């Protein structure tokens, strides 16, 4: 891990220093790690930065720091409220999960979706502090391409939990929990779209789940990249407090010659994940209780039709994706009239 930590520290050292940025030394397991955070970050985000250099998952970390009491156990607390100093060292207690099966019995937490008002969405998206968080994340997060971006293709970004897979039900074989028509959907989409999978869980879980479902080595489509929780940013809303979201600007900044707000669409069962790019998100109906719903769920089939119907449109952000079902009906009627 020492090599990775120095690489991460080196990346952080070249990023522009702003007034409210703090460089923290974190002691863990006999070594010291450097993380750079800023006052607008939450404790949850600090834990993610520590995860990047130590591989200890945020939920496994316990942070200790002089004179801050229990505030460090509240993931939504802002670091600016903790009066951290570069001169004092933080101690982290936690263990790396070498055994992936720990995660299988302890799947990601479920947080129900909530609606944000239109004004609030615009405010969050345009807030300078959030744009700055995004810029920092762009500098810090490396996207590893599994397959090259393809010229002239649009981009489809997919969530996993409850979108492609019911991660809360149990089954002897994970295939039983896969949303129906997943491979047919990905095969059809691949003709017009590059595919990136972005989950709010960690990369081990993403690779394990997608591998088990046969998504990573399918003969009929290729996945361009996998993204995990470390690529997300935390934003604050007046009515809902702090929450994490998936800013597509991170992908657009890494591959500006291929992807932009004009050619990207993202499917997620949590609408708040789109808050930094509301025009590019489609809130998919969650796939829950796989055993009961496996026989009837046709969401991916209908969404295939939608994806292909809009593939010729120059600017995908000009369409209201919440109307996707009536768009499908209209295009069906148009075809019958031709
Ligand atoms: Mg989900």
TrEMBL record:
User: Origin organism of this chain?
Assistant: Coffea canephora (Robusta coffee)
Q: Name one Pfam family in it.
A: NIF
Q: Record's Gene Ontology CC terms?
A: nucleus
User: Where found, per UniProt?
Assistant: Nucleus
GO MF annotation list: metal ion binding; protein serine/threonine phosphatase activity
* Domain Ubiquitin-like stretches: 22-93
PANTHER family documented for this protein: UBIQUITIN-LIKE DOMAIN-CONTAINING CTD PHOSPHATASE 1
Q: What class of enzyme is it?
A: hydrolase
Name this polypeptide is given: protein-serine/threonine phosphatase
**InterPro entries named among the record's database cross-references:** FCP1_dom, HAD-like_sf, HAD-SF_hydro_IIID, HAD_sf, Ubiquitin-like_dom, Ubiquitin-like_domsf, UBLCP1
Biological process (GO) annotations held by this record are: regulation of proteasome assembly
Q: Which UniProt keywords apply?
A: Hydrolase, Magnesium, Metal-binding, Nucleus, Protein phosphatase
- Its primary localisation, in coarse terms, equals nucleus
**What positions does the domain FCP1 homology occupy?**
149-310
